[in-house]
Amino acid sequence: MVIDCGSCMVAGDACGDCVVTVLLGPIGGHMHPEIADEHCAAVAALAGSGLVPPLRLVPSPSPAAEPRAGRHRAS
């Protein structure tokens, strides 16, 4: 799983309650998160149990959307 927060339509509003922030820390810097499938399944299990917030990524309709500055980015 590759996470591109720059293309998330709820970035900013939902970042404080997103599992990406829980896993990688506060937004900012030059992060390029990529989560392996088995780790994604583990995070989904934790979120399903209420132990971490769920991934709140809402991709924009255009996959070529410009990433926003100051967000966790994945290439």
Automatic annotation (TrEMBL):
The lineage of its organism: unclassified sequences, metagenomes, ecological metagenomes. This is Unannotated protein. It comes from freshwater metagenome.
